[in-house]
Write a structure and sequence with these properties.
Number of helices: 3
Structural class: mainly alpha
Order of helices and strands: HHH
Number of strands: 0
């Protein structure tokens, strides 16, 4: 069960990273990208901001 959870988490992070990259390349603001992450992935503001901090310049 733990391995399945880990794979799901990795897949989620890959998706979030791809959305952030797309938004950055299309000149979306960080705020608009954050809102999109919250809507698409059903995550809280704090979590979306953490992902932005981690992947915005990656």
């Amino acid at each position: 069960m733990g391995q399945l959870f880990q794979r799901r988490k990795e897949g989620l992070e890959q998706g979030i990273r791809a959305v952030i990259k797309f938004c950055r390349e299309d000149s979306y603001t960080r705020d608009k990208t954050c809102s999109g992450l919250m809507e698409i992935f059903s995550i809280a503001l704090e979590e979306a901001e953490e992902y932005l901090e981690k992947y915005w310049l990656a």
